[in-house]
């Protein structure tokens, strides 16, 4: 599990095709890998990946065809910036919301507008996911925990404060860019429970 509070911005150091899927080598930037061992999880722009090799500066992770199909990882190029977060440990602060790192689908940046020192961002979500996104609810975009301001059909808006823009990949995004979306876990479980009662 993760919180959606980004700990560092890294970049894709190398992409290695492996019999139909990929192995990514990721430079972790300022992320402290002390205590991280092979088999631990690290969220890469919202995608939970298993570190299979690591040193103080990089880790490697295998990415399955399913993950490539459901996220933006398959279209990233070497050098692309990625948001990084280590998995929660017992006793860690939960500053964002509970995030599984299981990306539900890919959305797109619709537009960006200044709002005082912050920015208003509007995104489009696939119709199958949009029903889980609620005003004042939580959504995870590229691994970042955000509060939904408003919903209009399959579009929704969020507010990004200067800190978020400076400490995540959002500062490098623009209208039209693809983003990883993970809807709130509670919304999915509520739907499943209500469906079971029908």
From TrEMBL:
Its EC number is 2.5.1.9. Residues 1-97, 98-194 form the Lumazine-binding domain. It comes from the Bacteria. Lumazine-binding repeats lie at residues 1-97, 98-194. Keywords: Repeat, Riboflavin biosynthesis, Transferase. It holds the Pfam family Lum_binding. PROSITE patterns: LUMAZINE_BIND. It is an enzyme of class 2 (transferase). Pathway: Cofactor biosynthesis; riboflavin biosynthesis; riboflavin from 2-hydroxy-3-oxobutyl phosphate and 5-amino-6-(D-ribitylamino)uracil: step 2/2. GO terms for biological process: riboflavin biosynthetic process. It catalyses: 2 6,7-dimethyl-8-(1-D-ribityl)lumazine + H(+) = 5-amino-6-(D-ribitylamino)uracil + riboflavin. One of its GO terms (molecular function) is riboflavin synthase activity. Catalyzes the dismutation of two molecules of 6,7-dimethyl-8-ribityllumazine, resulting in the formation of riboflavin and 5-amino-6-(D-ribitylamino)uracil. Homotrimer. This is Riboflavin synthase. It comes from Metallibacterium scheffleri. The lineage of its organism: Bacteria, Pseudomonadati, Pseudomonadota, Gammaproteobacteria, Lysobacterales.
């Amino acid at each position: 599990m993760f919180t959606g509070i980004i700990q560092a911005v890294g970049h894709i150091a190398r992409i290695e095709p492996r019999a139909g899927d990929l192995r990514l080598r990721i430079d972790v930037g300022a992320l402290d890998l002390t205590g991280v061992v092979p088999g631990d999880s690290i969220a890469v722009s919202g995608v939970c990946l298993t570190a299979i090799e690591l040193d103080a500066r990089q880790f490697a992770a295998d990415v399955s065809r399913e993950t490539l199909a459901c996220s933006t990882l398959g279209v990233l190029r070497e050098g692309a910036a990625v948001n990084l977060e280590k998995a929660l440990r017992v006793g860690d602060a939960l500053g964002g919301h509970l995030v599984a790192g299981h990306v539900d689908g890919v959305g797109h940046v619709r537009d960006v507008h200044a709002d005082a020192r912050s920015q208003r961002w509007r995104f489009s979500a696939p119709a199958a996911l949009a029903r889980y996104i609620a005003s004042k609810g939580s959504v995870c975009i590229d691994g970042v925990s955000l509060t939904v301001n408003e919903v209009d059909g399959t579009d929704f808006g969020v507010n990004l404060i200067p800190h978020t823009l400076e400490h995540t990949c959002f500062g490098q995004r623009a209208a039209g860019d693809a983003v990883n979306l993970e809807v709130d876990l509670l919304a999915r479980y509520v739907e499943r429970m209500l469906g079971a009662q029908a």
